[in-house]
Fold this protein.
Amino acid sequence: MTSLFPALNRSITAICLFLFGFLGTETALLAANTAAATEAPRAFLWKVEGPHPSWLCGTVHSGDPRVAALAPSVVAALSSSRSFHPEVELSPETITTLAAKLFPADAPDLATRLPARLWARVVKAGVQLGLPEPMLHQLSAGTAVLLFSAPEEGDAEATVDGQLYAHAKERNLRIAALETIDEQLAVFQQLAEPQAIAALAETLDDVDAGRPDDRKLLDAYAAGDEHAILVAVQTDFGRSPASRALANPLLYDRNRVMAARLAPDLASGGAFVAIGVAHLIGPKSVIELLRARGYKITRVP
């Protein structure tokens, strides 16, 4: 059993990172960015005008050296802010709760609900994550999609998300998450089973292929290229009926919720918002929804 706990912790940490990373130290953050300031790409940072400006920062759930060094403009914006708004609030207690929700003891057996060949692929992917087969039986098809979609990121502290979260914690900023773990999990738990099974097969195809879509998104982020990210996201959601069915619950519906929940803090000013960059780009993005509410928002050069 002792070998299970590190594997389970890595998997849960990867999922949390997928939802929103955490940990790190401000000292390491500032040192890393001072050393690499000239190498950082143009930040995905937007200013919300007002007497006390707010900031929208598009993150990527990765510690890849090409993207992990935060631009000085991002560090300065966060340092000047009064509140911090990640997608979800994470803590050790939240991670424990997430594990219990992913692997409920009374869940129907996933193996009985999948074609035998697909179940064998789930078991193989679970072995690669270090998870034993009995635990995989407790997943739903939807939460299996989440489990195997999460990035294989070994160091949460090094990610863009993790550094920002740590900086906010060390500055004692008020932290107000835009979503709950239950809300984010519900996106996957509420998928109709045929849709979830189709999405699971596609997710495992992507894993077997080396996650090429993740690489394209990372390349676009490293280049600071809005258009390339929009194309990558639209291509990913448009590749099949199962993917197209995920676009609204996974992205566009959540954009509307985030924009509505941000309005009071943006009105007060001094808010720093750190969410996945895909939520901030395109005609249905959080930025466009906020502009429709009258906010003046411009990308920082």
Notes: Residues 97 and 181 are 9 Å apart (CA to CA). Residues 1-10, 20-39 have pLDDT under 50 and may be disordered. The chain has one domain: 4-299.
